[in-house]
User: What shape does this take?
Amino acid sequence: MCTLTFIGTKNGYCLTSNRDEKVSRGKAIPPKKYEIYGKTITFPKDTAAGGTWVAHDEKAVLVLLNGANEKHIPTDNYRKSRGLIVLDLIGSENPIEEWKNIDLENIEPFTIVYFDGEHLVQWQWNSIEKTTKQFKIEEPHIWSSATLYEPEIRAERASWFAQFHQEKESISSEELLHFHQFEQATNSDYGLKINRNNILKTVSITQCIWQPNAIKMQYLDLLES
Assistant: This one.
């Protein structure tokens, strides 16, 4: 929920998400299939709030990052977890239409990236307004959470990703997992895998491999590896 990359592969597309979280929050339940509003949804479950930071149905993937464009000051009385908003969207009949109508009053700011094979869309809520931004699926992209990474750090991380994909003619899902786990490995403050004083860590990596007829989710629990 704090770092996301999107890239085309030989057979489809790959979205890979690092979850940076306080270790005191508790371990998530590894990905399983659940029935949400009559749809079969696959996701790892956050045991604290019951939501998730990445989920897919048969056609689309949604990935959550904390915060919108700028770092915000959180409050203690949010109406609903952002991870449950992910399930409301992916569980709807048409997530793109649901985004236009969903009530986000008193929800903490967030960024959601939606991909369905044709549309790669960023949805943001900054506690005042919703915004929608389209991205080209022919190009690689990286997102870093505004709540943990200042703008100059986000730009530096983007440069690492640019160098990574420019050095290769094609990139496999395994290479992307390696990048998310080991890029700038000695930089525990803002490398791809962080450890800030054993309080805030990259606790897991979730990867969704999108192909025309199937979506496969892979999950790496870094607290057990």
